[in-house]
């Protein structure tokens, strides 16, 4: 008798529990192909300067799907390769790519002025934005996403390289971190997940 | 008698400059440069083929168009992108070595005049035996992914 009452109670609660569960997992519901980081990384937030010299924050990119990548302009190989590949991804998205932004954050603010960044990002894609700022602001953003960078020793002519994280962090229109793309990730998977995010939420 | 023949042979070998034949055995293809805006360093890529019976070691490069050229390797380990200078790159006997984005490449710095996409840039490859190989590199735009679209 007691068991029966418990069972009835549980059956009554079941739809409620289901509704709660759905609500909690709503953000995780998209069938991503890349590494899903939804709920495991903080929302997009920073105070930096864009490549037009304008102060910007993470909130300025709400309504856009954001691809965040750390690099520097004196990097002649991997950074341009990544940005060239992202340009191809943007082309594959067609018209919808206008609702996405590539945010290229400099890990070398000493050399990367907004002017240098402007020429650099525009050589790849018109929807790419170059962000630079104080070393402290850049470090804060890098740490926020458990990313890292190290300035290597200078050569005798004063040149130096910067070792930096290779991941691309993808945020939805609400600024929530959703997926992580790493070198070697098939391009189709990134395109697939960007379509999912571009077709979710309201454009700005 | 045998010893005399041997020393004669060795003397003959020593008289022939060791590097004379090397460039003929090494050929280059798919040579291109990714041109970046302003005075930023550029990455240069090429496929090297060695038809000889011995491995050949690429040790450096120079270009009349650039103040400096360095042999570099990009690597990705533990989620970190790293670039470092290397001193030599082996092209195996009867094999190829590929300098490509994300791996081995030449870093060209201090362009003497602005290099534009569409230009042809001469780069002289230098080998361990002192031989050299001049190669024409096609200057490509920043967003290029290879020597052709």
**Tally of helical segments of chain A:** 5
- Major sheet of chain B: 10 strands, mixed
Note poorly predicted spans of chain B: 12-22
**CATH architecture annotation of the largest domain in chain A:** 3-Layer(aba) Sandwich
Structural class of the secondary elements of chain A?
alpha+beta
Give the C-alpha Rg of chain B.
18 Å
Inertia-based shape of chain B: globular
Question: What is the highest CATH level, the class of chain B?
Answer: Mainly Beta
Order of H and E elements of chain A: HEEEEHEHEHEEEEH
CATH topology of the largest domain in chain A: Glutaredoxin
User: How many individual domains of chain B?
Assistant: 1
Helix tally of chain B equals 2
What Rg of chain A is obtained from the alpha carbons, in whole angstroms?
A: 21 Å
**The CATH topology of chain B:** Immunoglobulin-like
Which stretches of chain A are poorly predicted, pLDDT < 50 over at least 5 residues? 19-25
Mean pLDDT of chain A: 89
CATH architecture descriptor text of chain B: Sandwich
Strands of the widest sheet of chain A, in order across it, are 1-10-9-4-5-6
Please provide the count of β strands of chain A. 10
Structure description:
The complex is a heterodimer of chains A (204) and B (149). With 204 residues, chain A is α+β, with helices and mostly antiparallel strands. Chain A contains 5 helices and 10 strands; from the N terminus they run αββββαβαβαββββα. Chain A has a 6-stranded mixed beta sheet. In chain A, strands 2-3 form a two-stranded antiparallel sheet. In chain A, helix 2 packs across helix 5 (187-198). The longest helix of chain A has 24 residues, at 2-25. The model of chain A is unreliable at 19-25 (pLDDT under 50). Chain B is mainly β and 149 residues long. Chain B has a single domain (21-140), classed as PCu(A)C copper chaperone (Immunoglobulin-like, Sandwich). Chain B is built from 2 helices and 10 strands. In chain B, strands 1, 2, 3, 4, 5, 6, 7, 8, 9 and 10 form a 10-stranded mixed beta sheet that branches. Strand 8 (162-165) of chain A pairs antiparallel with strand 5 of chain B, so a sheet runs across the interface.
């Amino acid at each position: 008798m007691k068991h029966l009452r418990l069972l009835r109670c549980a059956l009554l609660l079941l739809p409620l529990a289901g509704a709660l569960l759905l609500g909690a997992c709503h953000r995780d519901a998209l069938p991503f192909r890349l590494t899903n980081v939804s709920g495991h990384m903080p929302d997009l937030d920073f105070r930096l300067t864009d490549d037009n010299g304008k102060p910007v924050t993470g909130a300025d990119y709400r309504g856009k799907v954001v691809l965040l990548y750390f690099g520097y302009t004196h990097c002649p190989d991997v950074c341009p390769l990544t940005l060239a590949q992202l340009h191809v991804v943007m082309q594959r998205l067609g018209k919808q790519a206008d609702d996405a932004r590539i945010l290229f954050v400099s890990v070398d603010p000493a050399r990367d002025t907004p002017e240098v960044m402007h020429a650099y990002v525009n050589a790849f894609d018109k929807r790419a934005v170059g962000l630079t700022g104080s070393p402290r602001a850049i470090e804060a953003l890098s740490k926020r996403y458990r990313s890292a960078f190290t300035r290597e020793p200078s050569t005798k002519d004063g040149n130096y390289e910067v070792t930096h994280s290779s991941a691309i962090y993808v945020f939805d229109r609400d600024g929530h971190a959703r997926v992580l793309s790493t070198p070697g990730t098939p391009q189709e998977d990134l395109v697939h997940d960007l379509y999912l995010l571009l077709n979710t939420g309201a454009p700005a | 008698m045998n010893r005399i023949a041997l020393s004669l042979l060795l003397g003959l070998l020593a008289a022939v400059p060791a590097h004379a034949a090397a460039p003929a055995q090494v050929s280059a293809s798919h040579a291109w440069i990714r041109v970046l805006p302003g005075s930023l360093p550029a990455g240069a890529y090429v496929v090297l083929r060695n038809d000889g019976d011995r491995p050949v070691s690429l040790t450096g490069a120079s270009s009349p168009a650039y103040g400096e050229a360095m042999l570099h390797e990009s690597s990705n380990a533990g989620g970190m992108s790293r670039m470092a200078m290397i001193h030599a790159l082996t092209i195996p006997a009867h094999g190829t070595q590929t300098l490509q984005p994300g791996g081995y490449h030449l870093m060209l710095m201090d362009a003497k005049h602005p290099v534009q996409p569409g230009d042809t840039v001469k780069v002289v490859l230098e080998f361990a035996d002192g031989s050299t190989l001049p190669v024409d590199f096609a200057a490509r735009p920043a967003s290029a992914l290879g020597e052709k679209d």
